Amino acid sequence: MTVEANAKVNLSLEVYGRRDDGYHELRSVVLPIGLADVLSIEPYKDGTVLSDTGYGEGDLIVRAARALQEACPPAAGLGAKVHVEKRIPVGGGLGGGSADAAAMLRALNEAWELCLSPERLAEIGATVGSDVPALVLAQHYRAPVLMEGRGERVRLLDADERASLPVGGKGGWMVLANPGISSSTAEVYARCTPREGRPSVRFDASAAPVNDLQAAACAFHPEIATALAALMVAGASGAMMSGSGSTVFGFADDSSSASRIAAAMAAVGCRAWTTT
């Protein structure tokens, strides 16, 4: 079985104060994108789960399989062997490890014939990582998701909310640019000044995009600020950092504009992709 593990960008990311469990309270719109790792999964024996990433039992892919085995007793004796073709940059704010974990949950649900709903898989994914529940739903439905709490509360945006999102461009074209550094999520959160209070009860999908981690990340890694400025000069609209960085993104009018912007970003030393 081969499955794509679609990455994400955060169309918005609001950071509030710390919760009792030590995590920050978040509100974020998570958008699945075309850039994806590819997982090739084979059945394996005696409940053994192997991944060729080299991270062993700490690999989010393996942890996702273990969580599924624990949540579903019939899966306890089932195993899998996974080869990962990495396309999503590590430490890039695109949710690469979490995307792989979400895809693993979805694939094993099918391969192991567990018949769990995407929403149940998202609940299981919450025990693996904060971005995993949103990515389970975003990958399955190929649609934007609202993530709240530390990431454990997720729901699809409804049709009116999706129509209100400030995504720009024709056909959803965007350009991703990575300045060639790995951004530490822990370091960026430590430098971020959270908002006061808690998120409002009503979510406004049309609100101006914001990433509360961006200023802290740019101060810590000036290369991110340079990439954002270059993206705007190249002609992208709505340029913003995804997650805790280091990848930045902006929207393009069409595929040819996206290709031109990506070429301009590559010329200034960034790794760049066009995607939708």
Explain how this protein is built:
With 276 residues, this protein is α+β, with helices and mostly antiparallel strands. The chain has 2 domains: 2-164, Ribosomal Protein S5, domain 2 (2-Layer Sandwich), CATH 3.30.230; 174-275, GHMP kinase, C-terminal domain (Alpha-Beta Plaits), CATH 3.30.70.890. 33% of the residues lie in helices and 28% in strands. It is built from 9 helices and 10 strands. Strands 1, 2, 3, 4, 5 and 6 form a 6-stranded mixed β-sheet that branches. A hairpin with a 3-residue loop joins β5 and β6. The longest helix is centred in the middle third of the chain and has 16 residues, at 96-111. The model has no long low-confidence stretch (mean pLDDT 95).
Salient structural properties:
2 domains; single chain; alpha+beta; Ribosomal Protein S5, domain 2; Alpha-Beta Plaits
Give me the strand/helix succession.
Answer: EEEHEHHHEEHEHHHEEHE
Q: How many helices does DSSP assign?
A: 9
Residue-averaged pLDDT: 95
Please report the total strand number as a whole number. Answer: 10
What is the CATH C level class of the largest domain, in words?
Answer: Alpha Beta
Assign the CATH architecture of the largest domain: 2-Layer Sandwich
- Based on secondary structure, the structural category is alpha+beta
Distance between the termini: 24 Å
CATH topology of the largest domain: Ribosomal Protein S5, domain 2
Question: What does the radius of gyration come to?
Answer: 18 Å
**What count of structural domains?**
2
Strand content: 25-35%
Q: What's the main sheet like?
A: 6 strands, mixed
- Unreliable sequence segments: none
Shape: globular
Q: Which range best describes the helical content: under 10%, 10-25%, 25-40%, 40-55%, 55-70% or over 70%? A: 25-40%
